[in-house]
């Protein structure tokens, strides 16, 4: 495949465009999709660019179909992806469940919007629960929550590799603000950064005779025996737990001596980062912790940050009514540190919101 | 008009305020048919306070409409019937001048000028060939504004290099370049005589448009 970016240089683009360019650079072969705000420009730019780079696109009749066609293409050995949001993410949970069951290296970009609703398109961080644990299964998936356009670009590329290496579905989580806002980033072809892209491989139609020259693939999505399902889920859970230390990612700042640790993810962590700097300049020892992987959660790392700092409080800041809070609390089971929250569904959080909240609880 | 995120709205707002400050009566029209509730909405009040007549949905008007798909503000359709100077901010860009089909009188108007805003840091317009290909795809283009920037990361070298490629592309297409737009804060660093076309220093209003 031809190079996409060439000489690395800064570009001024939206988050959605960053997805399309990153997927091209990551050598994705086909996108399946159905239009939904705020991810539309992922499709718009992919369809503008795909013919120039000999890639493919199929607009399906709905999100269920987009998810399942993605699953199908992947089984045929194509590096395929999709992007959606809100109710589209709800519909795609069925194909995402198939990807979990069949261990398909599916990549989906989710640009979160508000809820509860089928039609609310505005910014929010209310698809955390859905994206991490949305299916009728155990949430055996990898969810990267990005905070900048550079990260969207980096994690789409990385996400394809994680998916094809470990064969768990991978989600790159953004939101309506990230999708639409413009900021500079540096685009690059992965090979120029020494990143080797995992080559896609077919899961069906393989050569050889089953039982003679090769093992069966066992691409199964339906189990009719309870004991069989039990064994399969435990095997998947075992693989997931073994993979966790290799894929878990987080960002931590100023936690060594922190009296309070601010936990946030995605675009809100930009406000948290600024808030911690402001608080420090005012003599308040605040720390910053951001899970980059919401699934698997950096549980060990957050517990370590608490232990080394001896922080007396945690503040969770998010643009939802407790989705990150719930995720964090279950991961911190057994810790006795008080957890306070700044929950602002639907609206953006700025540094002063966090600064004021911290001061009110210290 | 121009590529998504090229700086169309910023150019439109700056031009509107410039004309207003000269004593003109100015109507600024948000003609974004893809995201009619986003672009100028957050700035509406602020711009109206400056004395501009703004045709854009306000927060109150869009409240409760949710995802209504492509929607044209009825007042935008008749915008050219206003007296004074009229600036149409044609959002999104992919349809180019064809969006003007929605505006009554646009095809007949002798005063209408269609201007393409080009930012060299946009991946679809980051070489002379791509700029020419892009401008040619827009349909009618009467002039170009060279608006190369990287927001807070704009450098003097980038302004020089990017805009000279835009100017060359426009020359090769036989389309005049109205001016180079440069953010005010870089004023002391730019030698205007180095460019073949006028340099206009602009203020950034769009960073306030977080929706």
What is the element layout, followed by pairings?
The complex is a heterodimer of chains A (362) and B (211).
Chain A: E1 9-14, H1 15-25, E2 30-33, H2 40-49, E3 56-59, H3 63-75, E4 80-84, H4 86-102, E5 107-112, H5 128-133, E6 142-145, H6 149-166, E7 170-175, H7 176-180, E8 182-187, H8 226-247, E9 250-253, E10 260-263, H9 268-281, E11 286-291, E12 293-295, H10 299-309, E13 313-318, H11 323-331, E14 339-343, H12 351-361
Parallel strand pairs in A: 2-3, 2-4, 4-5, 5-7, 6-7, 10-11, 10-13, 13-14
Antiparallel strand pairs in A: 1-8, 6-12, 9-11
Helix pairs in contact in A: 1-2, 1-6, 3-4, 9-12
Chain B: H1 8-21, E1 26-30, H2 44-49, E2 53-55, H3 59-62, H4 74-77, E3 85-89, E4 115-118, H5 128-137, E5 143-146, H6 156-173, E6 177-183, E7 199-202
What keywords describe this structure?
heterodimer; A: 362 residues; alpha/beta; Rossmann fold; 2 domains; 7-stranded mixed sheet; 5-stranded mixed sheet; 14 strands; B: 211 residues; 3-stranded parallel sheet; 7 strands; 15% strand
**Individual helix count of chain A:** 12
- Number of β-strand runs of chain B: 7
The succession of helices and strands of chain B, N to C, reads HEHEHHEEHEHEE
Segments of chain A where pLDDT lies below 50 for 5+ residues? none
Overall shape of chain B: it is: globular
Largest sheet of chain A: 7 strands, mixed
| Percent of sequence in beta strands of chain A | 15-25%
Mean pLDDT of chain B: 90
Describe this structure in words.
The complex is a heterodimer of chains A (362) and B (211). Chain A is of the alpha/beta class and 362 residues long. Chain A is 41% helix and 19% strand. In chain A, strand 4, helix 4 and strand 5 form a beta-alpha-beta unit. In chain A, helix 3 packs parallel to helix 4. Chain B has one domain: P-loop containing nucleotide triphosphate hydrolases (Rossmann fold), CATH 3.40.50.300. Chain B has 211 residues and is α/β, with parallel strands linked by helices. In chain B, the strands form two sheets. Chain B has a four-stranded parallel beta sheet with strand order 4-5-6-7. A three-stranded parallel beta sheet of chain B has the order 2-1-3. The interface between A and B is medium-sized, with 27 and 20 residues.
